[in-house]
Design brief:
- The protein is an alpha/beta fold.
- The chain contains 13 helices and 7 strands.
- The chain has 2 domains: 154 residues, NAD(P)-binding Rossmann-like Domain (Rossmann fold, 3-Layer(aba) Sandwich), CATH 3.40.50.720; 137 residues, Orthogonal Bundle (N-(1-d-carboxylethyl)-l-norvaline Dehydrogenase, domain 2).
- A 7-stranded mixed β-sheet has the order 2-1-3-4-5-6-7, sandwiched between helices.
- Helix 3 links the parallel strand 3 and strand 4.
- Helix 7 runs parallel beside helix 9, helix 7 crosses helix 11 and helix 12 packs antiparallel against helix 13.
- The longest helix is centred in the middle third of the chain and has 24 residues.
- The radius of gyration is 19 Å and the shape is globular.
- The protein starts with a strand and ends with a helix.
- The model has no long low-confidence stretch (mean pLDDT 94).
Length: 295
């Protein structure tokens, strides 16, 4: 029996996810994106009603509206899987908070891990963390059998969502280090400090600290911070190079809302170095060299 999957958001990650799912012949994939005409004449509501799975591959700025739009059409057994890794700029909420409050934890999955879109498209194997209720994990695991994507279970819905935001912000820092040509040693020091900061911030914000060392934390940080295809890493480079970028980088959009959530005081050193550089790129070398020396 075929299963119908709706992917909302036809950007790079949405298209890459479609490639993964189409590795199975019994999965029918439909797209909906407000920017593009869908391949079907069905409305968003009709697509949601006829789907067993709805994947949200939209920017954090669009998540709240999309969730409100689909809620009236969701069936009781439909699973909503979010790959959005950012914060709502208006409310400062993490994606897990928006989804849980609107749809309930039993119906959602936060999917996070090393999933660079360009690599997913090639069929290269990878693994990710699925934070959800156990019933949702079983459903998603069955959907992904026979594909190049495997998942591990986590009950830490909030922590996985927070980790997704943090790794994007810190990936900007790796781009800054690249642009400054500080080298691999500096990256090693930065990585060590960042993982410890992630552990502390996830605990402070209500998640489980061990999530920092999961596929959603350290593994995703490694992939996003070092991939040449990472929008957040590229954004960090372009800040130092004083170049405007057309790319959307969730790490930059989430920086100030994140700092507001942690109270705006006692900002951890690596996060502080990124913020200082974003505010004044001319100080980038001074700020990051001091950070590396004192980390």
């Amino acid at each position: 029996m075929s299963q119908r999957v709706l992917i909302i958001g036809a950007g790079e990650i949405g298209k890459a996810l479609s490639t993964v799912l189409k590795q199975r012949k019994d999965i029918e994939v439909e797209f909906w994106d407000k920017r593009f005409r869908s391949s079907t004449s069905e409305s968003l509501g009709e697509l949601v009603q006829s789907s067993q799975f709805v994947f949200l591959c939209v920017p954090s700025s669009a998540l709240s509206k999309v969730v409100c739009d689909i809620k009236p059409y969701l069936r009781r057994k439909t699973l909503v899987v979010s790959l959005t890794k950012g914060m709502d700029k208006q409310t400062g909420k993490f994606s897990s908070e928006l989804l849980s409050q609107c749809l309930g934890k039993r119906h959602i999955v936060i999917l996070a891990g090393p999933m660079i879109a360009e690599e997913l498209k090639t069929g290269a194997p990878t693994r990710a963390t699925a934070a959800c209720a156990k019933g949702g994990f079983r459903k998603l695991s069955q959907l992904l059998v026979g594909t190049s994507l495997r998942i591990e279970y986590s009950s830490d819905i909030r922590g996985v969502s927070i980790a997704g935001v943090l790794k994007n912000v810190y990936a900007v820092g790796f781009g800054i280090i690249d642009a400054l040509k500080l080298g691999s040693n500096a990256k090693g020091v930065f990585t060590n400090s960042v993982v410890l900061e992630m552990e502390g911030l996830i605990r402070q914000l209500g998640g489980k600290p061990e999530t920092a060392y999961s596929l959603a934390g350290l593994a995703d940080l490694e992939a996003t911070g070092h991939s040449r295809d990472s929008a957040n890493r590229v954004a960090g480079r372009r800040i130092v190079e004083n170049k405007k970028s057309k790319m959307t980088a969730e790490g930059l959009f989430s920086l100030e809302p994140l700092i507001k959530r942690i109270g705006g005081k006692d900002i951890p050193p690596a996060l502080s170095a990124i913020r200082k550089t974003v505010k004044n790129p001319k100080r980038a070398r001074e700020v990051f060299e001091n950070f590396i020396k004192n980390a």
